[in-house]
């Protein structure tokens, strides 16, 4: 009797290997770098318009027309996103303001003052969001950037300038009745405050014809000659 052959086992279909996950630390593509920059700009826009405390990751995602998960993917959480905005958007602007001051020669008080006034005016013309953010997040009580102003921006610009004013005063090149620290406070008051309050005084005085270049010239004339009259005329 012929032995029967057992039926062949059915072929086993193996599933396709799962797609490999993107490795962490991979070099970003141009597209991902552009998207990251877009998210930083969206965060800055929300911070200026609503304030840092009131801006959520969902708000920032909506501003950038992406999902909140994508914001989380790039920055982790809001605190890390805020740090990135400070490091990559705000501190470079402060460095721009500092450059003309650094270029002023030691002991040249007029050049130092002019460098500061022109530096702030030029930066605000390029980044009009700065005065609003400064008022909301640094001047106002509880502002999210006040500590950053004291610990990071302070040594970069205001304290550095006050030190140079003090040195000029010791060299007999600055009025001895002035306090170098309050001179720096006065300079900020004559520059950032008018720029931050521009929507108010422009409407109040019908002064839409005054731009930031006019404001810079006015400030320098005020600092140079004050309110004295020319009696020779």
Describe the structure.
The protein has 233 residues and is mainly alpha-helical. Helix content is 66%, strand content 0%. Helix 2 (57-64) packs across helix 3 (68-75) and helix 5 runs parallel beside helix 9 (180-196). The chain is globular. The termini are far apart. Mean pLDDT is 86; it is low at 8-28.
In short:
The chain has 233 residues and is mostly helical. Helix content is 66%, strand content 0%.
CATH topology assignment of the largest domain = Tetracycline Repressor, domain 2
Q: Name the CATH homologous superfamily of the largest domain.
A: Tetracycline Repressor, domain 2
* Mean pLDDT over the residues: 86
- Compute the separation of the termini in Å: 139 Å
Instruction: Report the helical percentage.
Output: 55-70%
Q: Any idea of the CATH class of the largest domain?
A: Mainly Alpha
Q: Give the oligomeric state.
A: single chain
SS-based structural class? mainly alpha
Largest sheet: none
Query: How many helical elements?
Result: 11
The radius of gyration is 29 Å
How many domains make up the 3D coordinates?
Answer: 2
As a percent range, the share of strand residues is: under 5%
Domain HTH tetR-type: 33-93
DNA-binding region: 56-75
Keywords: DNA-binding
Pfam families: TetR_N
